[in-house]
């Protein structure tokens, strides 16, 4: 069986990699289709697992038809699936858990099958899109963490102090808190290791140049390690950190699934088009899941609240534990390390 994975952006890879490993072990013929040249380190890492293709977006449809795969797996709502469905089966492993409305809107695309995390979310999606097929599998990205195969960050190798508590700051690209952090904030947290894992789009898009300037400034502090663009997986950072700081990002749901404390920052830097009476545009980007962030961890509305929130959560890591456990089941589904196996088995049994 021939299965191709469409990697429009590098941050789709952590969702695909565990599935690729399962399929490789079962003898499937695999291909990874990048829309642009990936970093050499990633290409080298993937070469033993699958054939690598670099295909311009304008040529994707003709390439996929010529390849004649049994399946094409996407990480986003790919409209080209409409042209492909008569040639192959198409499936979606969405590159996140929400809370943006795109989590639900993704199934308005013509992709035929979608793997979802929980029965709760499957029920919601099935009501919205009764003609689509949804398969409950769990969240593939977390499997390496659950199974103990994910790497961890060697703090000493990164110049950090292993005995210090470790904070993970993993901001999204927009709307983000990045620009509202003080330039000297690592100095104010000198008693902590700080791992900074930006969103991939913060590192490559010209619109986020100021964010990159701040990252480059912060990485000069002795207690900070800044992830490189090649370090696409958040898993080693989550495995290493004691606490995570982000905005209303699906990464917080991922960290929550490890039953570790999270801090949700609401001191966002908004574009002019989202100010005042135009704030409805921001709300439009968010789904009803936005409300869950109020329950899974400490919510703060200004940077000045961050230090005490960090201290309180590290002293009392079971704060919000009951809520976290409740929403792990509802949002993330079964965290048993078997999600990728369930995806692989479905693909192989439905050629």
Would you give an account of this structure?
The chain is α/β, with parallel strands linked by helices and 351 residues long. The protein folds into two domains: 2-139 and 335-349, Rossmann fold, CATH 3.40.50; 166-332, Rossmann fold. It is 36% helix and 15% strand. It has 17 helices and 13 strands. The chain has helices at 13-25, 40-46, 60-67, 81-84, 102-105, 119-128, 143-146, 185-188, 200-204, 209-218, 235-240, 250-256, 280-285, 293-296, 306-315, 321-332, 339-349; strands at residues 2-7, 29-34, 51-54, 71-74, 89-92, 113-116, 133-136, 166-169, 193-196, 224-226, 243-246, 262-265, 298-300. The protein has a seven-stranded parallel β-sheet, with helices on both faces. The chain has a six-stranded parallel β-sheet with strand order 10-9-8-11-12-13, sandwiched between helices. β2, α2 (40-46) and β3 form a beta-alpha-beta unit. α1 (13-25) crosses α17 (339-349). The radius of gyration is 20 Å and the shape is globular. The model is unreliable at 272-278 (pLDDT under 50).
